[in-house]
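RECORD CONTENTS
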Amino acid sequence: MHLRLLTIVTVLLAATTPAQAQRAPQTVFTVSAGYNYSWGDYGQLNETRVTYAPLTLKWQRGEWSAKLLMPYIRITGPGVVVGDVPVGTPRPVGTEEGLGDITPSLTWTHTLNRFGTTAELSGILKLPTADEDKRLGTGLTDFTAQAGLIQPIGKAYLNGNIGRKFNGANATFPLRDVWKYTVGGGYRLFDQTSIGLLYDYRERQSTGSENLSLLTGYVSQSITPQWSVQLYASKGYSNSSPDANLGLQINRSFDLF
């Protein structure tokens, strides 16, 4: 499973609907709990199965928001996936679990015109808190800078972003910096219910790996003004992507002042 991609997908599911993008200035604190299960062979004979359970804390004031994502990971497989990097060097099948890489991020969101076109600029830092010996992470710090646009069109909306991921690298993980892209759209079926599709593409991070290619469909449901839930499912189209994953995210917001 590509764990770095999951971080971006959860950001989109939680933050990029037209109603949320144009929220009136106020201070809002949101707690999100998620569960994701993925599987894929990553070009090997044996599958890798990953359980990824992130807890996310988000603070939003007007156009600025700060987020802290703290995941717990359980990986069963031949060790061909280290954190979010398919390395293609199998070992005996086993199971490892523990804290994943903690990810803080900062986002600026600004409505550009009367048509509701919204721009987003984000910086995302991956801290090497996952246990490198257990192959839960690379032990390296990464940084991603990205920019995106959201365009509401009646009950529908389109969104897309482009980002540059600056990978940490060493002799064990000779990773290179890569470009990544997301395009998608959604439709508000009812006042509290939206559905959508996202397609993610990222250049290969190392020699011998492939470009990431993943299609995700989701449904987002507001239960009350404070509670919401998202369900999503993804299909991968390369050996650097999971074959599939299923996920759930529950959000609780608090208006502070």
In short: Confidence is low (pLDDT under 50) at residues 1-23.
